[in-house]
Each structure stands twice: as C-alpha cells, then as structure tokens.
C-alpha cells in the first residue's frame, strides 16, 4: 500500500466542538504524515459567517508538504436553509463543504441528506441509512459520501458501502477528529476502509480517485 496517501477531509477545531486551534490540528496532521487535510467546523445560521471568515485566514499559508483545505460542516440546519449557507460559503471561497448527515445516533432532521445532495455540497458526512435514490442522485451531483472512523457515526459504514459500491458512489474516508489524538495514522485509515467492507484494491482505487478529484477539481 505504498501509494496510499492519507487524505482526511473532515475534522473539528475549537471553532466548534473540537479542542485544538486550527493551526495546532494542522501541525499534528503534518506530523502524522497526512497528504491532504481539511478542518470542517460545525456551522449553522448562528455562526457560519464568523467560522468561514476565520478558517479562510489560513487559506494562503504554506503548510508544505501538507495540502490544507479550509472547509465547513453544515450541522442541524433546517433542510430548506442549507442552500443559504452553501451559497455564502461558495461566494466567500470555501471549496470543501459538507453536511452533517442523518447519522443513526443523533436526531438529525429527516430530509437533511437529500437537501445536501440537491444543494451539491462536496460531501455528505455519516449519512446513516441513506436510500438508493439518494445515493444515485449523489453520484449525479458529484457529492462524495463519507465512511467515518468516528464512534457511533461509523455504525452504518458497512451499510453505506455495500449500497454504494455497485452504483459507482465516490467515497471519502474521514476521521471526524475532535482532538489531535483522533487523527488517522496509516493503520487507522486502513482499518476504517477495510472495516467498511472495502478490499485493499478498492481502498487504493478510492484513495487515488479522491486525490485526483482534490488536485484537479477542488484546488
Ligand atoms: Zn458530523
Ligand atoms: Zn464532524
């Protein structure tokens, strides 16, 4: 698995419910030999402008060799209002937008998954018992679907992967870190993928696919 790059596009700093400063978390990701990393703090209608303004201050800092992408995770926003935050974030230059999907362990509002997919966000985090119709629309709208290491949210990884793998869903594998010790190392990254039901070959394929997407379409 030499070609494998650690690409982790979902994490939280103290701007939401994480404990580290953004730069502290990025430093730990560098030390963990990450290739590409995103901080995606929880935003809703009460805080999205402040969080976006703050995370974008890191946009032009060189964290070489790590590629850092400022992001957001739209969380517990009424489905009808998701596009308000998406439109503002896009306008301000946020290139990695996620939505906190219908995880089985939280009362996320029903309709959040489909609203995220229709708003063409970049990724849908922990989508829980997502339907085939939603997954097909995610493929069409280029919305990437998450398999997660985060406890609880990870309960449906196997369900999500087994539904999505036959219809060419694009998958991301995330740590959803809330502190530096939550970050991936190679073993945890692989365990999340293989534990979701991927073979090593499939994991390499999805890893390369995501790398190419970020390099060619996002940066
Ligand atoms: Zn989430
Ligand atoms: Zn999260």
Give an overview in words.
The protein is an alpha/beta fold and 219 residues long. It has a single domain (6-218), classed as TIM Barrel, CATH 3.20.20.140. It has eight helices and seven strands. The chain has helices at residues 22-31, 48-55, 82-92, 112-118, 132-140, 157-164, 186-195, 200-218; strands spanning 6-8, 34-43, 67-74, 96-100, 123-125, 144-148, 171-174. Strands 1-2-3-4-5-6-7 form a seven-stranded parallel β-sheet. Strand 5, helix 5 (132-140) and strand 6 (144-148) form a beta-alpha-beta unit. Helix 2 runs parallel beside helix 3. It is globular, with a radius of gyration of 16 Å. The two termini are 25 Å apart. The relative contact order is 0.17. The mean pLDDT is 97. The structure holds zinc ion (2 copies). One zinc ion (ZN) is lined by residues 10, 12, 73, 125, 176.
Strand residue content: 15-25%
Structural class: alpha/beta
Number of strands: 7
Characterize the largest beta sheet: strand count, sense, and whether it forms a barrel.
7 strands, parallel
Highest-level CATH class: Alpha Beta
| Estimated radius of gyration | 16 Å
The H/E string reads EHEHEHEHEHEHEHH
Say which CATH homologous superfamily is assigned. Answer: Metal-dependent hydrolases
How much is the average pLDDT?
97
Question: Which ligands accompany this protein?
Answer: zinc ion
Q: Can you give keywords for this protein?
A:
single chain, 219 residues, alpha/beta, TIM Barrel, seven-stranded parallel β-sheet, 7 strands, 37% helix, binds zinc ion
């Amino acid at each position: 698995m030499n070609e494998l790059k650690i690409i982790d596009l979902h994490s939280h700093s103290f701007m939401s419910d994480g404990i580290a400063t953004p730069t502290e978390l990025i430093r730990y990701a560098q030390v963990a030999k990450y290739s590409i990393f995103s901080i995606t703090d929880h935003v809703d209608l009460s805080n999205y402008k402040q969080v976006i303004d703050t995370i974008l201050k890191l946009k032009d800092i060189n964290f070489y060799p790590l590629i850092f992408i400022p992001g957001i995770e739209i969380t517990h926003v009424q489905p009808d209002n998701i596009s308000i935050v998406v439109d503002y974030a896009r306008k301000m230059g946020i290139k990695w937008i996620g939505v906190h999907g219908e995880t089985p362990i939280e009362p996320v509002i029903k309709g959040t998954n489909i609203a995220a997919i229709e708003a063409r966000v970049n990724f849908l985090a922990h989508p829980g018992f997502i339907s085939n119709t939603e997954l097909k629309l995610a493929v069409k709208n280029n919305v990437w679907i998450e398999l997660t290491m985060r406890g609880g949210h990870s309960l449906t990884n196997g369900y999500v992967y087994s539904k999505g793998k036959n219809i060419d869903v694009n998958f991301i594998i995330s740590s959803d870190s809330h502190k530096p010790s939550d970050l991936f190392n190679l073993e945890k990254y692989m365990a999340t993928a293989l534990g979701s039901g991927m073979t090593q070959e499939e994991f390499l394929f999805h890893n390369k696919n995501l790398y190419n997407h970020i390099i060619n379409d996002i940066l």
